[in-house]
Write a structure and sequence with these properties.
This protein is of the alpha/beta class. The chain is built from 17 helices and 13 strands. The radius of gyration is 21 Å and the shape is globular. The relative contact order is 0.14.
Length: about 375
């Protein structure tokens, strides 16, 4: 389904749940689109799953989102602890605010917990970034995606492949809307401001002459031998170009005693604010990552990307973007990096619907869902 509707919006109340760094970037265009509608109230609930200001608070400021109406402050913890805290907290706020729908984003613990709380209370669930599949059930994110998709009333997809994945699982029809990638909306809107930042001269870098690295997934960083091997490979790249490595808090906590001599050859940084990180991405010669969102942003920017994983739920970035899946062999990463650095950057065609207007299409689809529910037999407009 593609959103295309006209309906009254007066008196609508929608709760958007965010909690991890990419959620803010993806949610902002949808929040803006809904807030522009007369009579639509959008409230923000921040679960606090990412509790460092550089990973959360500054995103709210830079993305122009309203300050959260609710903040659960759940912080870190085991999957069960985090999920349970969000489940309890979201249920309380849903009973208090009684929204017409809840929007959950991505694939983190906050997403599945908020969706469960809403589904059990009969609140319609909208899942932004539905239908992504890696096929790897050892990834907590894969479980979160599948559970959330299964209980959602509206599944907003960012590419045709995601629609196909859902259809293969028996989810189709009006429950599914192909709207495009809202993360790219935020990227395009803020790229001019990012390019004005002084992060490159501050770090002594030249555009197109450095490698940017992000690594955070537990399967890699929780294993000292695997993490050390990757750090050694990255240090080897510094014979050719500087390597910039902003550290996710999880990665920093695991680096004590890991390849200290190799680490000294890297530009190791604290977590960066969104605009600074976007500026580094946009001017990088090459990006090495295990992040899903970075795969998407680099493809939209036309920056070569090497994904240090055995699989990706964002296959569109490999098929139509700039992403290469290299696996988790350090030597394969070394070889792929050498080839990428020696090869001229080739322009790529834009990925369909990654055009800066996905937020508007998502907003239309959400209000269309509510209109259909109002028109359902046995429901009054005031129900």
């Amino acid at each position: 389904m593609t959103p295309n509707s006209s309906y009254a919006t007066a008196g609508r109340s929608i709760l958007c749940v965010v909690g991890a760094r990419p959620n803010f970037v993806k949610a902002a265009p949808v929040v803006h689109a809904l807030a522009r509608r007369a009579g639509v109230e959008v409230r923000i609930l921040n679960t606090g799953q990412h509790y460092d200001r550089a990973l959360a608070g500054s995103f709210i400021e830079q993305l122009g989102m309203p300050f959260p109406d609710y903040d659960l402050g759940v912080g870190s913890g085991s999957h069960a602890t985090q999920t349970a805290a969000v489940l309890v907290g979201v249920e309380e706020k849903l009973l208090e605010s009684r929204p017409d729908a809840i929007v959950v984003v991505g694939d983190v613990n906050s997403t599945v917990a908020a969706a469960l709380a809403a589904a059990k209370l009969g609140v319609p669930v909208v899942h932004l970034e539905s239908g992504l599949r890696s096929g790897d059930w050892t990834m907590p994110e894969e479980i979160n995606r599948i559970v959330t998709d299964g209980i959602s009333d509206l599944l907003l997809c960012h590419c045709a492949e995601a629609v196909d994945n859902l259809a293969a699982e028996g989810i189709a029809g009006e429950r599914v809307a192909l709207v495009g990638n809202t993360m790219i909306d935020s990227l395009f809107r803020l790229l001019p401001a990012a390019r004005e930042r002084d992060v490159l001269p501050r770090l002594g870098l030249q555009a197109g002459r450095y490698v940017l690295v992000t690594l955070h997934r537990p399967a890699l960083v929780d294993d000292p031998q695997r993490l050390g091997a990757v750090v050694e490979v990255l240090a080897g790249l510094t014979d050719t170009v500087p390597v910039v490595f902003p550290l996710h808090p999880r990665t920093r906590a695991r680096l004590d005693g890991v390849a200290p001599a190799a680490l000294e050859r890297l530009h190791v940084l604290d977590p960066l604010e969104y605009l600074d990180f976007l500026a580094l991405q946009a001017s990088a010669r090459l990006v090495v990552t295990d992040s899903g969102g970075v795969q998407e942003e680099t493809s939209a920017l036309g920056i070569p990307c090497l994904t240090y994983r055995d699989n990706t739920e964002r296959a569109i970035t490999v098929e139509l973007g700039t992403n290469l899946l290299v696996g988790v062999d350090p030597m394969a990463l070394a070889r792929a990096s050498a080839v990428a650095l020696a090869r001229p950057v080739r322009p790529r065609n834009p990925i369909p619907l990654w055009d800066g207007a996905a937020g508007e299409r998502a907003g239309e689809a959400i209000l269309d869902l509510l209109a259909r529910r109002d028109a359902a037999p046995g429901r009054s407009q005031a129900a």
